């Protein structure tokens, strides 16, 4: 697997303007995440350690609206550290990165979780994070470290965005499913595909990056011109594409090809991901500069890399753990194996070219 994984709008940019529901549903549709309520501040654990100041007995985590772990998992943090964990939710991943980047030295929390590799360079460049190397990172997380950084962010999980195919639909219709990203150039497959606008969808942006990394600098634009000219449907967000247009989605639509996640087939039997089409999305945690409880923040980063949390991630948030040796839920190895290779683009390169690539994409598809 390539190590520089680059797969969930900062400072007013419209690059990935999908709302929290789009992202939450995409990552946890099997858990019924459609009904998630956006809560500004959520206390996950109650009580505090005896003695000590409030800042020492409580640690606050700033995260995106899709964060969820079972109470019994979160309970272990208080048992192990004696600290109360409070969770502050701050919109989608782009909004989260923006909040952190705009408040260096005056953070809204002690630690942050949920900034991904497409936004990672922004808070690092803003000086909003304290370097920290968790002793647990060497077990796997270090492989996903942000290139050319000083350990300001620690990888916690990965979620690979890929084309998904409804294999049952193809079998029922006596047709051969596509086997690669390049197959979408064929008008037959293009008309069967539901793709995502990268300006309004975070997995849509990831899929755009997959095409940029797969084809040469000029070739990716030609790819999009061909695919859309041949009839591919482009919609604003994952929920529309997967649950309304995809033949295996809740709405039983008429598109047997859709942009989703490599983990999606674990939730939708009879489907599979085209593993040559994946862009690796990595989510990070970090200690916020100026944190009231920096020691608690470091312990929280360690906790997110612990076996307890890593084993809970797949079924809680439908992402892959980064720590080596973490078992996947039963059936995942067969129905939703993690890609062995993914497209790799450094976060700094994405940040430098995001707006240009978006405009080139608009020109290519005629938007």
TrEMBL record:
UniProt GO BP: thiamine transport
Q: Name one Pfam family in it.
A: SBP_bac_6
Keywords for the protein's UniProt record, in alphabetical order: Signal
- GO cellular component assignments: outer membrane-bounded periplasmic space
Any GO molecular function: thiamine binding
Q: What's the protein here called?
A: Putative ABC transporter substrate-binding protein
């Amino acid at each position: 697997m390539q190590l520089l994984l680059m797969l969930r709008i900062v400072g007013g940019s419209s690059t990935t303007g999908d709302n929290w529901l789009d992202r939450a549903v995409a990552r946890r549709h099997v858990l019924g995440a459609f009904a998630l309520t956006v809560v500004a501040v959520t206390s996950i654990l109650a009580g505090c350690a005896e003695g000590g100041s409030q800042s020492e007995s409580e640690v606050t985590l700033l995260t995106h609206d899709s964060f969820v772990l079972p109470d019994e998992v979160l309970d272990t943090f208080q048992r192990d550290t004696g600290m109360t964990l409070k969770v502050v939710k701050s919109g989608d991943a782009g909004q989260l990165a923006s909040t952190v980047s705009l408040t260096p030295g005056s953070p809204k929390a002690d630690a942050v979780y949920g900034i991904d590799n497409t936004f990672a360079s922004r808070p690092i460049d803003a000086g909003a994070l304290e370097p920290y190397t968790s002793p647990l990172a060497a077990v796997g997380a270090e492989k996903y470290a942000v290139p050319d950084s000083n350990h300001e962010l620690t990888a916690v999980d990965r979620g690979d965005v890929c084309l998904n195919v409804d294999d049952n639909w193809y079998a029922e219709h006596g047709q051969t499913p596509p086997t690669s990203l390049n197959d979408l150039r064929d008008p037959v497959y293009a008309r069967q595909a539901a793709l995502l606008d990268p300006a309004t969808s975070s997995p849509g942006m990831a899929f755009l990056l997959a095409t940029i990394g797969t084809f040469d600098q000029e070739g990716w634009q030609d790819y999009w011109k061909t695919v859309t000219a041949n009839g591919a449907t482009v919609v604003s967000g994952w929920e529309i594409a997967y649950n309304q247009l995809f033949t295996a989605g809740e709405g039983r639509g008429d598109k047997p090809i859709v942009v989703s996640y490599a983990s999606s087939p674990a939730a939708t039997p009879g489907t599979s991901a085209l593993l040559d089409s994946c862009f690796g999305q990595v989510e990070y945690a970090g200690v916020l500069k100026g944190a009231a409880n920096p020691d608690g923040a470091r312990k929280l980063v360690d906790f997110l890399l612990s076996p307890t949390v890593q084993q809970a991630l797949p079924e809680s948030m439908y992402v892959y753990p980064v720590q080596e040796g973490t078992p996947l839920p039963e059936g995942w190895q067969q129905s939703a194996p993690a890609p062995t290779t993914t497209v790799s683009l450094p976060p700094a390169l994405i940040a430098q070219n995001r707006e240009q690539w978006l405009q080139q994409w608009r020109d290519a598809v005629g938007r």
